[in-house]
Design goal:
Largest sheet: 2 strands, antiparallel
Helix content: over 70%
Number of strands: 2
Structural class: mainly alpha
Length: about 1000
């Protein structure tokens, strides 16, 4: 740490400290700098160091410390105001507002002192000639805090009526404060309208839109504007996460989680900031935080998770129930201190109301991974007076549900089995119980199906006995025994046909056996179809198997055709048979016919009142339509599957359908709709317990669609959430590279250049092992860009050099030239780096000229001529900017001459391309004109400006071919040329 020997060194050190993260380390450094300033024996140095100390305290969790440096500053002002320069005089009056609000946050400061301070502020502002606006704003804060609502409304009106001047808070902070009051008074829509310019980044400052985004969350939820609330949470949390002084805003994000069914997300946020539980430098924000902790813990306890371990104050382990009690006690104790100071009960009332809020949304998907906590399953409560279930009623209900293929049939038969324990049932009843139990066992159900068949026979129903044995044969086929199953069902097939012909059984039982046989033959057909698809030499064998299966399916159709009537089971057989024919068409390679048959099968299920059975076939239809290039039909089928699945659709299936719809919407460039489907996919994947697999893929897609909308902060949050779960084994390394790439783009747009560089370099490291190296080169180049913007010149140069080598290997001369130009600009930053920069630009020119002269076709030559034009232009700019303010006249003229030569070569290159490069040519001409003016060649400079105006003579910017961008270029060139002429004249 260099010694501070003068005020300039002190100012550099304070500027460096101001750029450090908020927190105790920055505060301690400010204290050291004040001590160093006192040794300089320069009053202004002490004043500036005190102002710096006050500022870092204000933007930290140690706000209570700022009163001491301010009191000293005020005393110095009263004793010797001439020691304060204009800036420090303004700053002294400015921080009155910080101290005023800071006093409110400290319950040990008496209310009388705060009121006295408010009067002092008003007096000093009047003496300094400032308006009442800031004073009335401070008065409003005092009145609102103590609950004097009438005074608060008067002060609010006076605040808005007073003139804005140099002491008024910035537009962003004022609008936040005004909107906060409207929300406090229950006027959510008005609050959001006031916040709109801040939320849309029209106004911003050190703490905005951070605070407005947090404050907007609950009002948006209350108004039902859920998508905006979700977006503001993701965006706002990213802004406040690293700012120690914004505990209150951070608490609002935890509160949002507690009110939207995102309790797990809320726990993650608490774990990220353990110091927030105990930091006591600002009691008001600690009260806010502990109130929200109590709210979240009560919510978890209400969900049956009171014994779950949760993050809390250091020193012990916490359960949700224990932390709820602790946080509530802490919050109410703090509130009581404020109320004792204020002489009201208002703070405690507000704290209790906040802790007692109920969720506003059952579950609002956020897109980031946060699995809904599942409460432990409680055993059913059995009371002594509980009545024994009515077994006949349970049986009747189970039969009704299964006969009509309704949801809940499985659970109904399970209830029958439980109620029938120890009861002597009729053979028919026992047969049905065994039959339905077997259905839930899969290949393990064979023996139970056989037992059911025996019982059906004993009950005098030989047809149902044969149907049960056919089911046993089918589950045997599912276990791999297709040949044995086919042998078994063949005999059953003969028996049922004979029985049916003799009138010994009905259509339903006969159809069941025929369908069982068809299903087994379909299993064999799929095995044969694989060989058919692979082009086996013995095509007759597989085709014969497919033909036998088709005949069996059509026999089912022939049996039930026209006989279904009100019998849902027969209608379902017909629909399933249509889907089987679709499968066979697909196995034969007739995808169009398969799609049509799947559509018929799905429609038949819907017509039979069984839409949930249509989902599988609509999903397969969507896949076929996609393969056939019929995206509209694919989308229709997917939407139908979602609609028809309804509440019966499992979470995994819902996630997959939404993910496919996201892909289709993205293909139509409908990024907003695609993001909505990807968000739903991520939510349902989490619900299905597939967060790390299907959920990670959905989040990756969601992040990409948000990025396409320019929603950088939201996209970054989502992509960062997806990245830990993405694996090369499950998702492919391409997905990991794309995620890192997208994340780097987001971070770059957000100004987080070092982090962007890390992501891009990580992606490049994976891509370097790929056979095709274009992505590797692009990522290395982008990493160089981010490293340069982060101020890491040496690392950036290495990245650009790596990219340049790859571009050369790929034969991409444009990429090579651009990497050389980028390295030249980096070299110019270094001390004595001009010669290296000049050499790199010269190499870029040489590479461009060589490629242009050997180009294979006219189009390539034109593209390379344009690249050369840009290189000469940048070369000229680089030379012109290399001249320092203290350079002598002769060396300056020499460099300007060289720069002018490059500009003229640039203009010449663009001129060779005709009207297509007009704006680039005129830009180079004007740059040359400015250089000529600096060299004293005023006539030549004026001639260039007139030539540019002549080039656009008669050209209406509103009627240009390329729209607004082209029109703006016309206006900009004209304006610059006219400015040049005016200055020259």
């Amino acid at each position: 740490m260099s010694e501070i020997t003068d005020i300039d060194a002190l100012r550099r050190a304070m500027a460096e400290n101001a750029d450090q993260p908020e927190g105790p380390s920055r505060n301690a450094r400010a204290e050291e700098l004040l001590a160093a300033a006192e040794k300089l024996n320069v009053p202004l140095a002490v004043i500036e160091a005190l102002g710096h100390q006050l500022k870092v305290y204000n933007y930290s969790s140690e706000k209570g410390k700022m009163f001491v440096p301010f009191a000293r500053l005020l005393r110095m002002w009263d004793e010797r105001p001439e020691d304060f320069d204009e800036y420090e005089t303004h700053s002294l009056h400015w921080v009155f507002k910080w101290v005023s609000s800071g006093m409110l946050d400290q319950p040990h400061i008496p209310l009388a002192s705060i009121e006295k301070w408010l009067g002092e502020m008003e007096h000093r502002y009047r003496l300094a000639g400032y308006s009442e606006r800031a004073v009335r704003s401070a008065e409003h804060s005092v009145a609102a805090h103590v609950g004097d609502l009438a005074r608060a409304e008067r002060a609010y009106a006076a605040w808005l009526a007073a003139d804005r001047d140099g002491m008024a808070d910035c537009h962003a902070c004022e609008l936040h404060g005004q909107g906060w009051w409207q929300a406090e008074r229950g006027r959510d829509a008005q609050a959001l309208e006031l916040w709109r310019p801040v939320l849309e980044d029209e106004y911003a400052c050190a703490h905005e839109p951070h605070a407005a985004l947090a404050s907007s969350l609950v009002p948006l939820l209350r108004l039902g504007r859920l998508e905006e609330a979700r977006a503001n949470h993701l965006r706002g949390l990213r802004l406040v996460r690293a700012m120690e002084s914004m505990r209150g805003a951070y608490a609002q994000h935890v509160e949002f989680c507690a009110l939207t069914g995102n309790e797990a997300r809320g726990l993650e946020l608490l774990a990220e900031r353990p110091a927030y539980f105990t930091d006591d430098g600002q009691p008001q924000s600690r009260l806010d935080f502990m109130s929200v902790v109590a709210l979240l813990m009560d919510r978890l306890t209400g969900l049956g998770l009171g014994d779950r371990q949760v993050p809390g104050p250091a020193g012990r382990e916490w359960t949700a129930r224990g932390l709820a009690a602790h946080a509530r006690a802490e919050a109410l104790a703090l509130a009581a201190r404020f109320d004792e100071r204020n002489g009201t009960t208002y703070v405690s009332e507000r704290a209790r109301a906040r802790m007692e809020q109920r969720p506003l949304v059952e579950r609002l998907p956020l897109g980031v991974r946060s699995v809904q906590p599942v409460p432990p399953s409680a055993p059913p409560v059995v009371t002594a007076t509980a009545e024994k279930p009515d077994l006949p009623a349970l049986l009747a209900e189970a039969r009704r549900l299964s006969d009509n293929l309704r949801p809940g049939a499985v659970e109904a038969w399970a209830a029958v089995a439980e109620a029938a324990a120890g009861v002597d049932l009729e053979p028919r009843d026992r047969a049905e119980l065994a039959d339905h139990e077997a259905m839930g066992l899969g290949p393990e159900g064979t023996a139970l199906f056989e037992r059911a068949a025996e019982l059906y026979a004993a009950a005098g129903d030989p047809g149902e006995a044969l149907a049960a044995r056919a089911r046993a044969a089918y589950v045997r086929a599912l276990g791999g025994g297709v040949d044995a199953a086919l042998a078994a069902v063949s005999g059953l097939y003969d028996e049922i046909l004979a029985l049916y012909a003799a009138g010994g059984t009905g259509t339903r039982q006969t159809a069941s056996v025929l369908m069982g046989r068809a299903r087994i033959l379909m299993r064999r057909a799929h095995e044969a179809g694989e060989g058919l698809a692979e082009g086996d030499a013995e095509r007759d064998g597989p085709e014969a198997v497919l033909g036998e299966a088709e005949a069996a399916v059509r026999e089912v159709l022939a049996l039930v055709d026209g006989r279904a009537g009100e019998d849902v089971r027969l209608a379902a057989r017909a629909a399933e048979a249509q889907a089987m024919l679709a499968e066979l068409a697909g196995l034969r390679g007739d995808l169009k016919a398969a799609a049509g048959l799947f559509a018929r099968g799905a429609a038949a299920f819907v017509a039979a009142g069984l839409p949930w059975f249509a989902v599988e076939y609509e999903a397969r239809l969507a896949s076929l339509a996609h393969h056939l290039g019929d995206m509209a039909e694919a989308e229709r089928a997917l939407r139908a599957a979602l609609e028809h699945g309804g509440a019966q659709l499992e979470a995994t299936g819902r996630a997959q359908l939404h993910l496919q719809l996201a892909e289709l919407a993205g293909g139509r460039d409908e990024a907003v709709e695609a993001a909505q489907h990807a968000l739903e996919a991520a939510h349902w994947a989490d619900e299905a317990g597939e967060s790390a697999t299907l959920g990670a893929w959905a989040r990756q897609q969601l992040g990409g669609f948000l990025l396409r909308q320019g929603r950088w902060a939201e996209a970054a949050e989502v992509l960062e959430s997806a990245l830990p779960d993405l694996t090369a084994e499950t998702h492919g390394d391409g997905a990991i590279v794309q995620t890192q790439w997208w994340l780097g783009d987001c971070l770059s747009e957000l100004g987080e250049h070092r982090a962007a560089a890390e992501r891009r370099l990580q992606a490049a490291e994976i891509a370097r092992h790929w056979p095709e190296q274009h992505d590797h080169a692009t990522l290395a180049h982008l990493a160089g860009e981010s490293l340069g913007q982060a101020g890491l010149a040496e690392e950036a140069d290495r990245a650009y050099a790596r990219a340049g080598g790859l571009w050369r290997e790929l034969g991409n001369i444009h990429g090579l030239i651009r990497s050389l130009r980028a390295r030249a600009w980096l070299a110019l930053r270094a001390q004595d780096g001009l010669e290296e920069a000049r050499a790199l630009m010269t190499d870029a020119v040489r590479e461009g000229e060589a490629a242009r002269d050997t180009a294979a076709d006219a189009e390539s030559r034109q593209q390379l001529a344009a690249e050369l034009g840009h290189t000469h232009r940048q070369f000229g700019d680089l030379l012109a900017r290399s001249v320092s303010d203290d350079a002598d006249v002769a060396s300056t003229r020499a460099v300007f001459e060289e720069a002018l030569s490059q500009m003229l070569r640039s203009a010449e290159a663009f001129a060779s391309l005709g009207d297509a490069a007009l704006h680039n040519r005129t830009g180079a001409e004007l740059a040359a004109g400015w250089l000529e003016a600096d060299l004293g060649r005023l006539d030549e400079a004026a001639a260039r400006a007139r030539a540019v105006l002549a080039a656009y003579d008669g050209r209406d910017p509103s009627e240009t071919d390329d729209g607004d961008a082209d029109g703006e270029a016309v206006r900009a060139r004209r304006a610059e040329a006219e400015q040049m002429l005016q200055l020259l004249e």
